[in-house]
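Here is the promised in-class demo. Please do not try to memorize the tokens; focus on the logic of going from shape to residues.
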């Protein structure tokens, strides 16, 4: 911190320093929150119960509304469909929908589609966006702790969200994967949970 050793800082320099400290504190807070969630997700027992994902009262539109996701389209049945841990599934959806918003492409309006489909004893969910996308060689590594894609640019983040998503899905006996969007634009995440 050269600024502190070379005489007294001017009011402007002081303000800059304080701003920098504040931004650092906010990032640190976000990281600590995420790590706590992570630790909880690893340690806590799952409370499995029937959950509705689609429809007006479903978890997808509920979480989408809370996050203010613009133009969110949900396809699939309403009513209880999954047997899952509500806290974990909410975290999972919040992370995926939050990412869709965070990593929107600046040059086009964001569209997010969620598809819910029952397949035998599993429910398969896809979350697709038309955002900035993730390079193919990073489709697997983005799930690793603290890993961020080359396309993240200046968007702030910790790289923990998708690690937590994978943990939640795996604790429900499922898998989660990442691919490019249907027309090569954007990103599609696919995961499965036990059917109710
Ligand atoms: N929907 C998305 N569109 C584009 N890139 C994404 C999307 N979701 C995740 N990513 C990329 O994957 C990385 C890891 O995501 P995540 O674990 O949630 O961490 P964070 O959002 O804190 O950076 C992000 O940094 C970003 O580069
Ligand atoms: Mg994230």
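The designed amino acids, position by position:
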């Amino acid at each position: 911190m050269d600024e502190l050793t070379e005489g007294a800082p001017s009011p402007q320099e002081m303000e800059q320093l304080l701003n920098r400290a504040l931004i650092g504190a906010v990032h640190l807070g976000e990281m600590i929150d995420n790590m706590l969630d992570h630790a909880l997700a690893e340690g806590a027992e799952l409370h499995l119960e029937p959950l509705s994902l689609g429809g007006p009262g479903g978890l997808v539109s509920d979480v989408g509304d809370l996050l203010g996701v613009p133009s969110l389209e949900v396809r699939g049945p309403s009513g209880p469909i999954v047997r899952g841990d509500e806290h974990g599934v909410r975290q999972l959806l919040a992370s995926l929908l939050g990412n869709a918003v965070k990593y929107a492409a600046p040059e086009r309006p964001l569209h997010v589609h969620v598809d819910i489909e029952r397949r035998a004893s599993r429910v398969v969910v896809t979350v697709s966006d038309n955002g900035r996308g993730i390079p193919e060689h990073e489709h697997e590594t983005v799930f690793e702790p603290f890993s961020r894609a080359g396309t993240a640019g200046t968007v702030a983040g910790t790289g923990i969200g998708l690690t937590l998503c994978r943990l939640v899905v795996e604790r429900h006996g499922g898998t989660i994967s990442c691919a490019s969007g249907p027309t090569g634009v954007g990103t599609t995440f696919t995961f499965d949970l036990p059917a109710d």
